[in-house]
Structures are given as structure tokens and as C-alpha cells.
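Input (structure):
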């Protein structure tokens, strides 16, 4: 039996900043880039985010930016990045999303970045809102952080089943446009008047992928619900369990909290981020792995590749973004290691 499969669409997560409220020598504050095919979506834009991009994959022409909330460590890098885009002569429109309060924030930020060379649009999102895109949607959910805040999930549509070439041959479906129509779920008519339905030549539908970003949050049923059956859950772990009281006071999570969410939600891989500067990372990884073994603690410039489910599990690529540094980048010095890498 010969099965035909289209070229897979790459999906990965680039960790540009993995520290908590302040930068450390090895970690910048929060920023995450999701790349799906040719699309690039930035989630949060902390101090220094544009430099993190320049040091790795380059300052890409973003079309969409998503902010989770308006604590300074999640958006202070935005005015500088917007101004840099203008200084480069950008004319492509930009859309910035965030929870209620986005327009108020920009009424102040405009005095910082001044006149831009391009249009930007502001869209306020509330928990439960969804944005339909080509082949996927962005879903928002509530978080427990004591301020106007949302988390985000990128959820792909189910894909058609594999195309069975041998059955199509037996049915007399000619190569070319007709087979493409069947793969898109359309019934076709043959020259002899017979019809062929998609289900006659396609296997069962195949699941798309799901990436969930919790942002800053304490334990919350809404986060658990959003993370259900995710391929990848990126969850904050500001504290170790010894600081559980402090985590509750500040509406943050411990590594153990995040691991319990990952286990209950049945995710494939848990990535811990937003680490307090009192931790290096391995100690939080050990704590979380006692509950959810498939846990990693990415460092800045690590990436996580998210293949389609039938092709394997998400995988941490250490320093993956640094391997893509443009040849013309002035940042030619290696990034200091300074701490143990997660295994």
C-alpha cells in the first residue's frame, strides 16, 4: 500500500529570555518566539529582546506580537524594538495583541518611541477569545497573576489522513489536480461520470500540534484546562517548592506546581521558564522531574522542535537559535555558559 504525505510544516519555540523579573548574566527576561513555517510570532518582549534576536536568528520582521500582561519585565523591550523597526525604514504593518489595558499602555509608550514609519494596530483580548489563522488558531485563557493577564495556546487544525495512492489508482483517479482536491476534502467527478469521495482514498484524520504558554501564573484550573493534551507546555517556575509561600504571595508557580499541571494535563513535554535569579536551573529540573520526568529547563537561545505526533516527541535543541546567527551579525562572541545545561 503506497501512502502519499505532504511536506511537514516546521514548528518550533525559540527561548529568547528565560529569567524572571530581572536579567542575570546568563538569562534575559521573558520573550518567546514561535515559528511555524514562515510565520514568526513573538510572545512578550522584555528588556533586551531585540538584542537577543540580533545575537541569534536576527531581528526578523515580525507581523504579530502578543503580550501576556503589563508587568515591566514582559514589555519593556517593546518601545526600543518598535523604534528600531522604524529606523530601518519598515513599512509593513504590525499587530500587537494583549489583555485589556493595551491601549492605556500605548498612550504612555508613544511618548517614548515617537513617530513610526509603519502602521500598528492594537487588539485587546480576553480569556476565551480566539484568532483564526491559516491552519491554526491562537486561543487565550485566564491566568492567576492578580492583574489583567492571559496565556496563549497555538492549536493547529486536524490534518487530512494519508492519501492512499494504490486505492486512487484502482478507482481511476488520474494524477494531478483531482488528487489534490481529494486531499483537501473535496469530492471529485471522473470523466466516466463516477464520483470519488475523500474518505475512499484518505486514512483517518491526523491530529495537529498544540503549544501552550502559561506566562506568569499561580496554579489555576484554567491553565490546566488549556494545557490538556498539549505537545508542549511552557510554564513559569519562578520558585522551588521550598519557596511555595513566596510563590503564593506573588501569584507565581513553583517547579513542582508546573510539573503537577503537566502530569494532570497529559502533555508530552514541559519546559520551565521565568526562573528567579536565585536558581540556575538544574535544581528546578530535578524537582519537577520527580513528578513529571519529561521536563526541561531551557536557557536563552535554546529551541524546542515540535514535530507532528506521528514523527516523534518535542525535543530540546541546546543553543539551537545560535546556530542560525546571520553571517553579518556583529555579535560574534560566544554566549557564556556559566551554568549546567539541562539534560
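Output (sequence):
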Amino acid at each position: 500500500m503506497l501512502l502519499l504525505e505532504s511536506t511537514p510544516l516546521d514548528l518550533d519555540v525559540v527561548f529568547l529570555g528565560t529569567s524572571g523579573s530581572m536579567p542575570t548574566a546568563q538569562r534575559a527576561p521573558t520573550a518567546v518566539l514561535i515559528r511555524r513555517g514562515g510565520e514568526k510570532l513573538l510572545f512578550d518582549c522584555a528588556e533586551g529582546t531585540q538584542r537577543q534576536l540580533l545575537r541569534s536568528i536576527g531581528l526578523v520582521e515580525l507581523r504579530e506580537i502578543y503580550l501576556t500582561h503589563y508587568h515591566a519585565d514582559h514589555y519593556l523591550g517593546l518601545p526600543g524594538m518598535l523604534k528600531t523597526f522604524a529606523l530601518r525604514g519598515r513599512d509593513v504593518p504590525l499587530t500587537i495583541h494583549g489583555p485589556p489595558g493595551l491601549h492605556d499602555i500605548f498612550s504612555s509608550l508613544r511618548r517614548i518611541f515617537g513617530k513610526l514609519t509603519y502602521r500598528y494596530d492594537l487588539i485587546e483580548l480576553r480569556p476565551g477569545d480566539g484568532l483564526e489563522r491559516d491552519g491554526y488558531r491562537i486561543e487565550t485563557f485566564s491566568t492567576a497573576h492578580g492583574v489583567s493577564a492571559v496565556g496563549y495556546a497555538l492549536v493547529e487544525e486536524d490534518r487530512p489522513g494519508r492519501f492512499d495512492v494504490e486505492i486512487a489508482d484502482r478507482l481511476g483517479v488520474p494524477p494531478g489536480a483531482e488528487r489534490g482536491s481529494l486531499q483537501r476534502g473535496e469530492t471529485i467527478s471522473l470523466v466516466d461520470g463516477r464520483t470519488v469521495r475523500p474518505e475512499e482514498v484518505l486514512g483517518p484524520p491526523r491530529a495537529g500540534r498544540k503549544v501552550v504558554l502559561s506566562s506568569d501564573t499561580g496554579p489555576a484550573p484554567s491553565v490546566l484546562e488549556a494545557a490538556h493534551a498539549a505537545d508542549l507546555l511552557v510554564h513559569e517556575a519562578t520558585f522551588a517548592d521550598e519557596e511555595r509561600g513566596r510563590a503564593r504571595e506573588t501569584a507565581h508557580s513553583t517547579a513542582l506546581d508546573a510539573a503537577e499541571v503537566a502530569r494532570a494535563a497529559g502533555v508530552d513535554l514541559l519546559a520551565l521558564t521565568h526562573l528567579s535569579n536565585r536558581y540556575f536551573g538544574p535544581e528546578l529540573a530535578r524537582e519537577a522531574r520527580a513528578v513529571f520526568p519529561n521536563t526541561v529547563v531551557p536557557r536563552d537561545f535554546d529551541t524546542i522542535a515540535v514535530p507532528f505526533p506521528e514523527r516523534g516527541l518535542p525535543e530540546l535543541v541546546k543553543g539551537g537559535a545560535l546556530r542560525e546567527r546571520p553571517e553579518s551579525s556583529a555579535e560574534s562572541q560566544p554566549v557564556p555558559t556559566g551554568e549546567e545545561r539541562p539534560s
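Notes: The chain is about 20% helix and 25% strand. Confidence is low (pLDDT under 50) at residues 329-343.
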